[in-house]
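Forwarding the complex inputs:
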Amino acid sequence: MDEITKPRLEVCLSPALLHLFDVKNSIVVIIDVLRATSTICTALYNGAAKVIPVATVEECVSIGRQLDAITAGERDGKIAEGLLHGNSPFEYPTEFIGGKVLVLTTTNGTKLLHMAKDAVQIITGSFPNISAVCEYLISQGQNVILGCAAWKDRVNMEDTLFAGAVVSRIKEHFDVNCDSAIAAETLYHSAKGDLFSFMKKASHFHRLARYGLEEDIKYCLTEDGANILPILRNGELIKEK
Amino acid sequence: MDEITKPRLEVCLSPALLHLFDVKNSIVVIIDVLRATSTICTALYNGAAKVIPVATVEECVSIGRQLDAITAGERDGKIAEGLLHGNSPFEYPTEFIGGKVLVLTTTNGTKLLHMAKDAVQIITGSFPNISAVCEYLISQGQNVILGCAAWKDRVNMEDTLFAGAVVSRIKEHFDVNCDSAIAAETLYHSAKGDLFSFMKKASHFHRLARYGLEEDIKYCLTEDGANILPILRNGELIKEK
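Prediction (whole assembly, two chains):
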């Protein structure tokens, strides 16, 4: 491919930095590895009709009632009051979620998704669907922003690692003039031999491990366990055909 | 040292993230490796009486006139109109700067410095004075924020690498529950064998190399060439005794 015509590939490490990027002329990949975007692709992979991401518990309850849908979301590591399910990908096997609508409220990921609403396209990414994400991004030939949901705007390890993993896979197809992308890729190469052990250094690991969620973390760091592409259409995430 | 009583060590990768940190209860290290903070410690090491950091070219001219001082600063890689000197550490040998006052305007570093004005203490850090910085931080026993000046709020490689180098040297003395700090340290360990080669991947390298500044970059990536501690007192950076 001609150097000059390659689209840009950039990494935005926190929603608080998104204004520095040209969202309107880019595909934005929403990354919330622990655990929103891992759970979204898992639910769709297991046959959910769609996933509706909402910002608040109130919206979740209200839309869930209107659509007779499954409502899910956590606050401070517990299922939020008024909702019935949590953020774990293991809560959404085919026998439970097949054919159903999932209304999901998460703080970090949903916030970023709404901030990126003017993007050319919004998709969600996580290790369980990394191959589908990379194939899609290469096929589109558009500018890409890998948007880390972070933790209350703080840069986090798991989203940065996933962004780095994507950069390492697709960079030949893009112009990568972004220090965050190069840093994320370097970090990923340092960690990839054993992502789970590396993640033990991270702040979020300890938050989740306290709740006994080590199996969730392992699943969320494993490639292609639910390898489909969630794509946003009219405010709803559906499985791209 | 008792685990519980250790002060915090955190890395803020961009001024746009500084509001997430407890600046008021921390020492803030201003990091602008290419080239403001490298030049500041070099000028002080070579005998400058003080360095006055200012935000605009106008202030620089005005204060320079009042104090009969050396005025310096660049915009877009050139000495700014109305000023006489640039950002290169090589412009400030003892025979030129000894006993003089340097009024310096830089965009990224000065902005961060003003944002951090409520900190317990502000110092500046760069590879040429890394040992002085680390010794000071260990000696103070206070919370520390390593504040990267970045590039127009974009995370950059060189400031992140320096933050990582400091983390790797002093982390035993601190509580490091900050993914940015862990990521920066990991990045530094990947790069430290040959920082200059690693920096060739970074966006700022290409901006400066276009201006023929590779020797500046090499100097700015070399440890302890001007190993003193610039500390902010009443808006002026002086050499800590």
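DSSP finds ten helices and ten strands in chain A.
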